[in-house]
């Protein structure tokens, strides 16, 4: 059988312990985080800065490759690779995106909930080795999506949706129902700007898993502004 190049590396339980040194980009991070990228481009540069202005994550890659394989860096020169994202299917509505460290150590994964996301964007987030979701990301106000699509279909006027409508997404821990992280679109014109807030404690690996899940959500939902 031909090996699937988009499959996640085999999970090694011995490598699953959560040590701060495995998540160097999270050391000293000040919340909230700010994510930004240009909207009208096929080669977006996505940057995530913390509250002090420190660069945490940077991605510059051709758009059509983003859904298949994403390389995450911690510097503008792209010399410090900190993570990779690979889809288990190519250009698929409900593909699962696996996050790993450069050495293959699993970080987690996320998957869009197919038809449910037609009305309200919904994503499942999995910790390493789990086949049952540990978190769920849901759009908090689906009406923002409705009006965004309605006005966005009108030529020229549709550009205003980039500034007028501000969808937000909440990541909730399924055991206990505690909101852990929130992503909110910020006012901007011809640019996507998002605020990432941490609402409750989470392990470093879970935190990075959710940050990367929000990152993929933004790429998947980017056409909505």
Identify the overall geometry. Answer: globular
Q: The biggest beta sheet, please?
A: 12 strands, antiparallel
Instruction: Kindly state the percentage of residues in helix.
Output: 10-25%
CATH class: Mainly Beta
Uncertain runs with pLDDT below 50, 5 residues or more? Answer: 1-21
Integer average pLDDT: 79
Q: How many strand segments?
A: 12
Return the CATH architecture: Beta Barrel
Percent strand:
25-35%
Q: Using only CA atoms, what is the Rg?
A: 17 Å
**Distance N to C terminus:** 41 Å
Describe the fold and architecture:
This protein is α+β, with helices and mostly antiparallel strands. It is globular, with a radius of gyration of 17 Å. A hairpin with an 8-residue loop joins β8 and β9. It is built from 4 helices and 12 strands. The N terminus is likely disordered. The protein has one domain: Beta Barrel (Porin). Helix content is 16%, strand content 32%. A 12-stranded antiparallel β-sheet has the order 3-2-1-12-11-10-9-8-7-6-5-4, with helices on one face.
